[in-house]
Amino acid sequence: MKTFAAKLGALALVAMIAQPVLAGGGVKATAKFDGERPKRTVLKMDADQYCAKANEKKVGSEEAIVSKEGMVKNVIVYVKDGLGDAEFEVPTEKAELNQQGCMYHPHVQALQAKQPMIVKNSDATLHNIHSFAEKQKAFNFAQPKQGDEKEVTFSRPEIVKVKCDVHPWMSAYIGVFDHPFHAVTEKDGTCELADLPPGEYTLAAWHETFGEVEQKVTVADGEAAEVEFVFKAK
Fold first, then answer.
1. Beta strand 223-233 with 25-34: parallel, antiparallel or unpaired?
2. Which structural domains are found in the chain, ordered by start?
3. pLDDT digits (tens, 9 = 90+) for 124-147
4. φ, ψ dihedrals at 5, nearest 5°
5. SS3 track for 163-215
């Protein structure tokens, strides 16, 4: 259950063409929240002595991280429409999901379908990795030892949730796409999509608590479009 219980909608503002870039077209996206800043719940990890000791300082939940300036972290921004039937080479670089300090790192990431991802346990305690998927076979396996690693792949585009059945506060989200035009906002609420072919696109911004919004944008060769997404509480 989400700790931020307000009914949420979202509003996307107008995109505009901005500064030149060196190669191809691009998009610089910003994610903001319009409303009362949600409070982060302090996670209780004392059920596992290892986790409690590894986190002697308070650790806040990651489901709604909004800065004092209203910038939203962990928003997946991606091209939803406009690429047609184009096919893209699958990266060989391995993504990583690390269990460290009884938390998933990163909490949100994006990768390409069939791109390898290493699931790693950096803790000296048992973790369980359980994926929740609708368009592909889910996985559910344990990593009982520090240093355990396993390679996994996702075959179809969707946003996959991952949880640890041993530690219920642990969760992560993995955006899986059939193209490389995706990114995740940092704590300043920004991210960039690079090397987009010139054209008109529908962009989407997805957040685990605030939902998803879409926006049209035109990308010109050698230029970067600036897009501001605003998630709005009702």
1. parallel
2. 1-80+194-234 (no CATH), 89-178 (2.60.40.420)
3. 999 999 999 999 999 999 999 999
4. -95, 0
5. ECCCCCCCEEEEEEECCCCEEECCCCCEEEEEEECCEEEEEEEEECCCEEEEE
